[in-house]
Amino acid sequence: MHPLQDILDPITREELRRIGITAGQHALDVGAGAGSIAASLCDLVGPAGKVTAIDIDTSLLNPSGILDVYQRDLRTQPLPVDAGSVDVAVARCLLEHLPNRRALLQEMITTLRPGGWLILGEIVYAPVIAHAPRTADSDLIVHVVHGILDVLSANGVDLHWGDKTPAILTTNGLEQVRTRWTAETWTGGSPGCRLLADNARQLHHKLLHEGLTHTDLDHFAVLMTDPAVLVRGYQFASTTARKPAAMALPGQPSGLPHDHGTTVIAPPSPRPNPPAGDSFPGAVYARRTHRERRPDDARSGQHGMPVDESSDMYVRGERVARSARHH
User: Fold this and answer.
1) 145-162 pLDDT, tens digit each
2) What is the DSSP string of 88-102?
3) Angle subtended by helix axes 3-19 and 36-45, to nearest 10
């Protein structure tokens, strides 16, 4: 299992348990990757149900009597399901990567039956905190992880999309909107630190433009195996929302989700450093914000976190470093 699956699958499975999927339902997994969540959905809906899994690369998905698999480039191709036919639609680490994220979100909402559920999850920006035996190593970890986030942003990933999602869903008429933000401490050698090492390796050449050297990045890889290292991991925003039994959006034309109510939402700023005594000893806290990009700067990848355009690698819970990936 890829490290990001180890980290995120328990969160997504808990959301599936909480909303109460039942046998015989139709589930949709958008950006299904290697199919770990699709497999969970198959178990939940049973032989009387159906799961539709969609990805641009379906080589790791195996159709079955329950699971239908479709290859789609979601930037340009529609979802292969009928409107009003889906009981639960899942998309994880996907929408923030796509330039047409709003249109695809609207399409997912349209596929839901009245009373159907959305489960969405995204990596979101948060300050970086690191501890290592040497202060210089703590500084290096913060620098590299911030560099990863900056490279993602520079390539069109909206690292605030997961924070904006609940307001967008609410203002577009969905009910029972609930977001849970999760971030944990990752120890050297853990799945989380292996993920950071993978990310830095795959973005190696781009990180050289973030003030880092080959030696820095080689040393970072070693630090990610050191059990004396602690890092505040990526923050994950998991949102669930339900389509009303009779969805009425007064005054709103059909089309893209609108977010007139979200104008009060500003991109989050890094949290201030905690007062003395509130941090673990030797910790280094992020001291700069991640760089935001204008929408017209965006160059998007699909279905993964992060995207390395030069090497065609997507780091997502379900896929990593497969060839012929980029499109």
Assistant:
1) 999 999 999 999 999 999
2) EEEEES-GGG-TTHH
3) 30
